[in-house]
Design brief:
Elements (H helix, E strand, L loop, with lengths): L1 E4 L2 E3 L2 E3 L3 E4 L2 E3 L2 E4 L5 E3 L1 E4 L2 E4 L1 H12 L11 E4 L7
Parallel strand pairs: 1-4, 2-5, 3-6, 4-7, 5-8, 6-9
Antiparallel strand pairs: 8-10
Length: 87
């Protein structure tokens, strides 16, 4: 797993389950998430796009079909301060 700490990543493709992001900013990036365990602390998304694949995509589609999730674009800048398993 690649670890990024205190970095700004610009115009990159990031697979969330394959990296550890600590105090990082993703600027104008494409972020892919498939439903696995993400590893991040204090992550800022600046004008980046989220793409859901596999189980994550099916979950989003199912929730939307039941009216439980309203699909909206993410704000241009977003701060994620919680994490699930970062060391």
């Amino acid at each position: 797993m690649k670890v990024y700490e205190n970095e700004t990543l610009t115009k990159q493709t990031i697979v969330l389950e394959e990296v550890c992001l600590i105090n990082c900013t993703l600027k104008d990036c494409d972020v892919f998430y498939s439903g696995g365990d993400p590893d991040y602390q204090n992550l800022k998304l600046d004008d980046s796009r989220f793409h859901f694949r596999g189980a994550a995509q099916k979950t989003m589609q199912t929730l939307a079909s039941f009216g439980m999730l309203k699909m909206q674009p993410m704000p241009a800048s977003f701060q994620a301060t919680s994490n699930t398993k970062a060391n």
